[in-house]
Amino acid sequence: MLEEVLKYKNPCRDVKAPKKEKYVPQILNESEFNILKEVIKDTPDELPILLASSMGMRLGEIFGLKWTDINFKNGTLRISQTQVKAGPTNYVFKSPKSESGKRDLIVPDYIMVLLKNTSKETTEELVFNQKPDNFSRRFERILKANNLPKTRFHDLRHYHATMMLKHGIPDLYASKRLGHSSVSTTKEIYQHITNEMESQVETKLKEIFK
Predict the structure, then answer these.
(1) CATH of domain 26-200
(2) What is the pTM assigned to this prediction?
């Protein structure tokens, strides 16, 4: 009798799948980032890494960047498209997923100099004529070769957000710069308080309640 009942019942039907663990970004601290910055100085790796860490650009945005998106006169660049994977070896260019993703960014002077120098050496339409995943793997090798903590290329964007938080950049501006559709996304996902910041807060609390 029991065998007949179980024959038509899937024992896994009522079993709930475990919740997927939330990814915790492994963000380089400032000392580690300064080592990375020195290692990549004057190499082809410098500009893509700085666009992520100093401007908060996504991997696909960096490798979708066109020379016509850069305004050398005003010192700005426009995010107008992103390069995304459409198959095992196929990539396509698409507009940013949301209107907030289309944005103009103020470019730090030292990055604008790098862009100007690079523009003189190429006739390509794209600033970087390579696939995003290839550079992501290249980034992993750079970290490993220099005994730096393993972190994703995307986590350089988290580093940028954390630095904005640390230096008091208003949430609304940070959200706009990162291309988020809402400030809550910026607060929840990207603005991770570093150990150094936590230590400063704890010291301040001790002073307040001594």
Answers:
(1) 1.10.443.10
(2) 0.81
